[in-house]
Amino acid sequence: MSDARGGNRSYPWGHFAPPTPREALAGVRRRRVIALCLDFVLVAMLSTLLWFALFMLSFGLSALLLPPLFPLVAFFYNGLTVSGWRMATPGMCVMDLEMRLMDGRPVPFLNAGVHAVLFYVTWLFPPFLLVSLVTSDKRCLHDLLADVIVLRRSN
Helix or strand or coil: residue 102? Predict the structure, then answer.
């Protein structure tokens, strides 16, 4: 059923999801895994540097407060890079990928950050990552929940 704007009312979020060209989805899963590995290394390095800097600045007193540093760095890393002008993390840029909202708009900071948190929560339940194998647009569960899609830049 269509609404007045030509959108699809049966779409869960109430807006029209334009069809995604096949070329934009070609090789996305493999590229995402490689981009994830690159981004994971970058986030780990940033977290380690920040941990050592804060440890030294506090003379070791902050050692017990610093373990949740990795999720915070990952939240801001993903939020700032995906909501930026490139619409991708550095790993995604290397692999020629970008992230958009399902209606084609750029991803706002909060959606990008929540996407990262949902991704790391999904790692606690690995079978949830298999959702990508049954969705036609190769979206994972955390993509569905954050209402984003990862596409190839050049198609």
Answer: coil
Domain residue ranges in the chain: 22-152
- pLDDT tens for the chain, residues 1 to 155: 444 444 443 444 444 455 566 666 777 888 988 999 999 999 999 998 998 888 888 887 777 777 788 888 989 999 999 998 888 999 999 998 999 898 888 999 998 988 988 888 888 888 888 888 888 788 888 888 888 888 888 75
Residues facing 98 on adjacent strands: 151
**Do the strands 148-152 and 97-101 form a parallel or antiparallel pair, or are they unpaired?**
antiparallel
Q: Which residues contact 28 (CB under 8 A, 6 or more apart)?
A: 97, 138, 150, 151, 152
Distance CA 111, CA 145 (A): 10
Cα 15 from Cα 9, distance rounded (Å):
7
Number of Cβ within 10 Å of residue 82's Cβ equals 26
The Cα 24–Cα 21 span in angstroms is 6
**Strand-pair partners of 101:** 148
Residue 87 near residue 153, CB atoms below 8 Å: no
